[in-house]
Amino acid sequence: MAASLTTTMAMVRFQLVNTTPVSNLVVVVVPDLGDIPPSAILSEWRVLTPAAGGSSAFRFGGAIQAIVSDGRTSTAPTAAPLGSLLPVTTAPNGGLLFGARVSGNDPSVAAVRNDSTDDKLLTVRWRVDGAKVLTQHGLNQKAVANLALTRTLQFFTRDLAAGLAALDFPGIVSQITSYTIPDAVTSVKVTWSRDSAAGADTFTFAAR
């Protein structure tokens, strides 16, 4: 498993080039989040649909946000800078919405702690670069939901009509390929290929 981020990394641009003949598959990209609770719900972070011979682009910078809900009210997306401890607030007056705090003292982990004095179970929806990656339900008093983001992205293909549910991958048709972003890289070309119509999906990476 790759080491966790200790700061938000510089934005890296990915260009995925489809050299396969297939048109009924999409490429899914999810960040490596390390060890996550079995009850957590993983989301498809990026879904790319390059036509045969075409390409799709996305960016990864590792900016973490949390949305906290008590089942009736939700906060706006709140930045979760690693290693800090901030109260969860909501517009318009910036007051405390629930007794919850975002992030903690570990410089490699973002966290939400339920500090509520009310009998409320909280749900935390994590985002990376504005897109949902993980949902954790049922956070009771003093419980902590953690997100340990790494510099590694995972690539796989799935059937166009299928979606990702919980920690299962319905419709997945390839093995998962992991790629750890080197330091000082600003762009990565990803080539998606197959040696035959039903051959294995291969992802190769060229960093610049």
Proportion of β residues?
over 45%
Q: Uncertain regions: pLDDT < 50 for 5+ in a row? A: 90-97
Question: If you compute it from the alpha carbons, what radius of gyration comes out, rounded to the nearest whole angstrom?
Answer: 19 Å
Order of helices and strands: EEEEEEEEEEEEEEEEE
Quantity of strands, as a count: 17
What is the average of the pLDDT values?
80
Major sheet attributes: 5 strands, antiparallel
What is the 3D form?
elongated
Helix content: under 10%
Counted by DSSP, the helix tally is 0
Terminal Cα span: 23 Å
Structural class: mainly beta
Spatial order of strands in the largest sheet: 3-12-11-6-7
Could you explain the architecture of this structure?
The chain is mostly beta strands and 208 residues long. 0% of the residues lie in helices and 45% in strands. The strands form 4 sheets. A 5-stranded antiparallel β-sheet has the order 3-12-11-6-7, with no helix packed on it. About 4% of the residues have low confidence.
